[in-house]
Write a structure and sequence with these properties.
Belongs to the universal ribosomal protein uL22 family. It is found in: Plastid, Chloroplast. Pfam families: Ribosomal_L22. GO terms for molecular function: rRNA binding; structural constituent of ribosome. By secondary structure, the chain is α+β, with helices and mostly antiparallel strands. It has a domain of about 110 residues: Ribosomal protein L22/L17 (Ribosomal Protein L22, Chain A, Alpha-Beta Complex). It contains three helices and three strands; from the N terminus they run E-H-H-H-E-E. Strand 2 and strand 3 form a beta hairpin. Helix 2 packs antiparallel against helix 3. The longest helix has 18 residues. The chain is elongated.
């Protein structure tokens, strides 16, 4: 039996003050890309969400190099997700002594990086190969349908 080697590290950013919808717009562009390509994309995109995501990707790469000793060239973003956080509620004073509620959304961003140079070992003794029983093919016969002889659409008077 062989042990499974850990090849994934993650970085988690919680309570980031921006909408989850705006952060997902950036996350969808970097999912599945390499580390160096991701940094270039995040530096050149004109969105406000890029900076906290850039910091998380950089932190996940630092976790990978410190915990696993992996090289940054071999890192790929295997999973990136954005979840909605709590909504911070504030009051804005308005005219004639009134106040309006302001809702400031937050989000939680998770970046999971995988080292593609490390192989995962699988125990081959526990895998059993089984064949599915072959099913008999059903033969269908086609019959000619005559719509004029049994009261079709033109038989009405």
């Amino acid at each position: 039996m062989l042990n499974k080697r850990t090849t994934e590290v993650y970085a988690l950013g919680q309570h980031i003050s921006m909408s989850a919808h705006k952060a997902r717009r950036v996350i969808d562009q970097i999912r599945g890309r390499s580390y160096e390509e991701t940094l270039m994309i995040l530096e050149l995109m004109p969105y406000r969400a890029c900076y906290p995501i850039f910091k998380l990707v950089y932190s996940a790469a630092a976790n990978a190099s410190f915990n696993m000793g992996s090289n940054e060239v071999n890192l790929v973003i295997s999973k990136a997700e954005v979840n909605e956080g709590t909504i911070v509620k504030r009051l804005k004073p308005r005219a004639r002594g009134r106040s309006f509620a302001i809702q400031k959304p937050t989000c939680h961003i998770t970046i999971v990086m995988k080292d593609i140079s490390l192989d995962e070992y699988i125990d081959t003794d526990s895998i059993t190969w089984s064949q599915k029983p072959k099913s008999k093919k059903k033969h269908t016969t086609m019959s000619y349908y005559d719509m004029y002889s049994n009261g079709g659409t033109w038989d009405k008077k």
